[in-house]
Structures are given as structure tokens and as C-alpha cells.
Write a structure and sequence with these properties.
- By secondary structure, this protein is of the alpha+beta class.
- It has a domain of 91 residues.
- The protein is 26% helix and 25% strand.
- It contains 8 helices and 16 strands.
- The chain has a 7-stranded mixed sheet. A 4-stranded antiparallel sheet has the order 5-15-7-13.
- The longest helix has 15 residues.
- The relative contact order is 0.24.
- It binds fe (ii) ion.
Length: 290
């Protein structure tokens, strides 16, 4: 690996033991110059995953850090705490299969971030799968076959398996997106199907759709294409929510409290204003935090 100017400016190096992703040596509580921000944005685009360690950030500081990579959402309901111990913590303890966040709306989040506020020994890791590398690894014939296809993305029902058309209920949000996306800022292709919320590939019979999706998963979720991040207090991970997927196992009881800030042009509530059930559960969570 050659050390570029960006690496020298930010102390960037590949995350140890990871197949992709970059760790940088930057203190995000100190003011950053434009050159450093531009370097961080370029490093982020290499793999769509960047790690800062030993940070102690307020929510506003986390949002300002995310702004380096795209506009951070600042609405209360789009920023929340993921926790298995805090009363009202979001997402509880259950396993979360690999997914992109909210692929079932017209404009899914561009990026996500998690900042480790409290992490006990044995806290569940977060796993990341690169949809950029997955695309790169496909045989040419498969690339050509899927290039024109689209998939129906639906809100996952947390079934421990892929949510399909048969699982949907009235009012479940869904959206159609291309199976092959293009990374923002680089145009590099990535696979946009996931094992949680991709119901089917449109324009294909169900059996053929299922078989093709499974074939793509073999590349996406190949263990060689997965980075498992064991959390330490102070970690901040920022990832491209479209080009990189995330997952976790059941959290168990080891304390794990992560603050979530998302990067997006459009918030969830702008896109799904009718989803009152989720709205209410997040409002309840806010009350519990207050
Ligand atoms: Fe998620």
C-alpha cells in the first residue's frame, strides 16, 4: 500500500484484520480544516466504512462529524440511541440480519453512524458486508444479467429470515430500486439486495427471483467479505448505508448503548409520514429518556 497525502494527513490505515474499511487518527472534538475534511471524505468513499476510536462526542458533535460525509439528519425522530439496557433504547436485543436501513422508501439513508457510549465486556459486535466488493467479485455473466434488474424492497418484519411478499400487511411501506446501485461520489457499482428486506426481483417469476437472490447472497455474505466490529467505548463508525450492509447477533445482556445519527437528504418521516406506529414507539422512547 502506498501512503497517500490523505493517509498522512489523517493517519489513515486499513482496519486491522478487516477485509475492508479504514481507521483514522483524528480527534473529532477539535476543529477540522477543509483539507482534513476533504481527505476524510475521500477515505470514506474508498470502502464506504471509516472508524474513529477514542472519541467522546455529544450528539451535535456526532452530527457535525457525519456532515463531513453527507448531510446529517437533525430531526429528533431520525436520531436515536440503540441500546439493550437503557429504558426506551431502540431495537432491543433481537438479531438483526444484514440490511441497508430503510431500503423500502424512495430515498434510503445515504449513510449511518454509531458512536459507542457504553459497551460492556462481551457486547454484541456489528458486522458489515461490502456490496462494492460483492459486485466486483461477480462473474461477468452474472453482472450482465442483473444490471438491468430491479428489486422490491419492503420493511422487514424481523422474522429471522427474508421478509417476502406473503409476509406483508396493509400499509407496509415498499419501494423499487435497481439491483445494482452506483456509489455516491464515485459511481462504482454495488449490489442492492439484502437478506432482510428484499422481497423479490421484479419482472422475474418467484422461483427464479428467489434463486437469483440466493445466488447474489453467496457473494455478499461470503465470510471473506464481512468485517465484524467488536465495540469499544468511544468508537465512532460511519458507513455508506447503500454500498455497505450491517447486521448484528442477539445482544444478550452485556450492556451495549450506541448513539445513532443518519446521513440523508430526506428523513424517514418526510417519506413515510403515515407510519404512526413507529412514530409513537420513538416518541415513547424519547419520553423514557427525558
Ligand atoms: Fe440498521
Amino acid at each position: 500500500m502506498t501512503t497517500t497525502d490523505d493517509d498522512a494527513l489523517t493517519g489513515a490505515r486499513p482496519i486491522a484484520g478487516a477485509p475492508f474499511g479504514w481507521e483514522v487518527g483524528i480527534d473529532l472534538t477539535a476543529p477540522l480544516g477543509q483539507a482534513e475534511k476533504a481527505a476524510l471524505a475521500r477515505i470514506y468513499r474508498r470502502d464506504g466504512l471509516i472508524l474513529f476510536r477514542n472519541q467522546s462526542l455529544t450528539r451535535e458533535q456526532q452530527q457535525q462529524a457525519c456532515d463531513i460525509f453527507g448531510p446529517a439528519l437533525r430531526t429528533d425522530l431520525d436520531n436515536y440511541v440503540v441500546s439493550n439496557v437503557e429504558e426506551g433504547g431502540f431495537l432491543g436485543k433481537q438479531e438483526l440480519l444484514f440490511h441497508n436501513d430503510i431500503p423500502y422508501v424512495p430515498a434510503p439513508f445515504l449513510g449511518g453512524s454509531l458512536h459507542a457510549l457504553e459497551v460492556a465486556e462481551g457486547a454484541a459486535a456489528t458486522r458489515f458486508a461490502s456490496a462494492l466488493r460483492a459486485w466486483d467479485s461477480l462473474p461477468e455473466g452474472l453482472k450482465e444479467r442483473i444490471a438491468p434488474l430491479q428489486a422490491l424492497q419492503v420493511r422487514g418484519h424481523l422474522l429471522g429470515r427474508r421478509t417476502t411478499l406473503a409476509d406483508l400487511g396493509p400499509g407496509d411501506p415498499c419501494a423499487v430500486h435497481s439491483v445494482v446501485g452506483q456509489q455516491q461520489g464515485t459511481g462504482r457499482p454495488y449490489l442492492f439486495v439484502n437478506i432482510d428486506m428484499t422481497a423479490c426481483i421484479t419482472a422475474l417469476p418467484h422461483a427464479e427471483s428467489d434463486a437469483l437472490i440466493e445466488e447474489l447472497f453467496a457473494y455478499l455474505y461470503d465470510p471473506a467479505n464481512i468485517y465484524e466490529h467488536g465495540w469499544a467505548k468511544g468508537d465512532l463508525l460511519v458507513w455508506d448505508n447503500l454500498a455497505v450492509q450491517h447486521a448484528r447477533s442477539e445482544t444478550g445482556n452485556a450492556a451495549r448503548t450506541l448513539r445513532r445519527v443518519s446521513i440523508a437528504e430526506y428523513g424517514y418521516w418526510e417519506q413515510v409520514p403515515t407510519d404512526m406506529a413507529t412514530h409513537q414507539s420513538l416518541r415513547d422512547m424519547e419520553k423514557a429518556e427525558a
